[in-house]
Amino acid sequence: MNKKGFTLIESIVSIAILAVLGVGFIPVFVNGFQLLAKSYQVESKQFDARKMAETHQTSEEFTKSTVNTTFTVNGITFSPKQTTMKADGGVEFTYYE
C-alpha cells in the first residue's frame, strides 16, 4: 500500500497539540488588551489635565483652591503651595509650586 499524506488520527493529534499550545497564549493577549485600555484612560486624563492647565490662565470656569502646607522630612522643612483646579465636568488638576 502506497501511503501519501497524513491519517485522520495524525491530523487530530496535531490539531490538539496546537490547541493546547494556543491556549497558553490567551493570557498574553488578554493582558495586552487590558494594558492598552488602561494606558488609553491614563492618556485621556493627562490630556484633560494639560488642557485645563493651558486654559487656566485665561478662563474663569475653574474653581481654584490653594493650600499652604508645611512638613518636615529628615530635619528639612518643606512648604509647597498646593493648587487644585476643578472644572465643571469634574476634571481635577493639582500642582505644587
Short description:
By secondary structure, the protein is α+β, with helices and mostly antiparallel strands.
Would you mind describing this structure in some detail?
The protein is α+β, with helices and mostly antiparallel strands and 97 residues long. It has one domain (8-96). Helix content is 48%, strand content 24%. It is built from two helices and five strands; from the N terminus they run H-H-E-E-E-E-E. The protein has a three-stranded antiparallel β-sheet, covered by helices on one side. A hairpin with a 2-residue loop joins strand 2 (71-73) and strand 3 (76-78). The longest helix is centred in the middle third of the chain and has 31 residues, at 26-56.
From the structure above, extract its key features:
single chain; alpha+beta; two-stranded antiparallel sheet; 2 helices; 5 strands; elongated
Largest β sheet strand count, sense and barrel closure: 3 strands, antiparallel
Count, helices: 2
Strand arrangement, major sheet: 1-4-5
Element-level helix/strand string = HHEEEEE
Question: What oligomeric state is this?
Answer: single chain
**C-alpha-based Rg, rounded:** 29 Å
Structural class: alpha+beta
Q: Please give the number of β-strands.
A: 5
Head-to-tail CA distance between termini? 87 Å
